[in-house]
Automatic annotation (TrEMBL):
Coiled coil residues, start to end: none
Designated name of the protein: Microcin C transport system permease protein
BP terms from Gene Ontology: microcin transport; transmembrane transport
ABC transmembrane type-1 domain: residues covered: 125-344
Higher taxonomy: Bacteria, Pseudomonadati, Pseudomonadota, Alphaproteobacteria, Rhodobacterales
PANTHER family assigned: INNER MEMBRANE ABC TRANSPORTER (PTHR30465), INNER MEMBRANE ABC TRANSPORTER PERMEASE PROTEIN YEJB (PTHR30465:SF66)
Pfam families per record: BPD_transp_1
Family according to the record: Belongs to the binding-protein-dependent transport system permease family.
Organism in which the protein naturally occurs: Citreimonas salinaria
Amino acid sequence: MGAYILRRLLLIIPTLLGIMIINFTLVQFVPGGPIEQILANIEGEGDVFQGIAGGGGGELSAASDESAGRRGLPADFIAQLEAEFGFDKPPLERFLDMLWNYMRLDFGESYFRSVSVIDLVLEKMPVSISLGLWSTVIAYLVSIPLGIRKAVRDGSSFDTWTSGAIIVAYAIPGFLFAILLLVLFAGGSYWQIFPLRGLTSDNWEQLSPLGKVADYFWHITLPVLASTISAFATLTLLTKNSFLDEIKKAYVITARAKGLKESRVLYGHIFRNAMLIVIAGFPAVFIGVFFSGSLIIETIFSLDGLGRLGFEAAVARDYPVIFGTLFIFGLIGLIVGILSDLMYVLVDPRIDFEKREG
């Protein structure tokens, strides 16, 4: 297992390199850049796409220079901006400089916020972790018992109507459910039970420790429900199908023939084998919830998390934030993949990835 983990760790390097090369290359062809954004803001246009149409990926083309000239901006001002942002260098040199800095864990500073990328990520991380962690925990706490119950009562009326409810929940878009929750429970048109925005109240620092915990859960309830609604279906059906596969196997029939109680057969024999894929997939499920749909949920509930950070960086062409977060999240995703494999081995030591690769 040690050799397998070592190979997976070494594979992270070329994988991250490929991710960065592809995205850095694509950015070179995207219209607009941080300099064009600044020029648009100087002229009060507020949108880079209403300003300079030429250039890509931060490169100022001849059309950009002409447009800047028409605006009355001096050429030395443009050159100073290029030098400040590093766009006076060729793309290959900029890319190599970026990789060298990343190797030293130096992800640079935001172009427009004067804050390091690491500090920005750490500042926004609690919101995204709260959404991802609690959504995953709640999904497991509900889906696993429900999936087991559906497997035991397969084909019954309970199985039928719960499957219908799950499919309906899965079909509802997360943002639509979030808006519905706001309308019903956040003072939209009915009850003012939960707060409309933020992760904590303005007087959070003055609250007692127990009051802080209560205030935190009070604020996170609706966003977590909105981000969890679609996760129930996949996990519940996965649990049910895993248990159904195990129930039909010979060792279960043998255990029942020995006169063991059904609960002992279910939780003493079937549970461990059936839950292998469900429990081992916890890290991947958490990362999936962590990354997917966070932008919409954070926007609707006015939460300042990583989803909004990435969106705002993309709109403003804040390249250090874009590439820094891309590198960090790519690294997290690859490490989580290794952790998922380790979870499989922890749940079932019979699994040997080295023999499978061989």
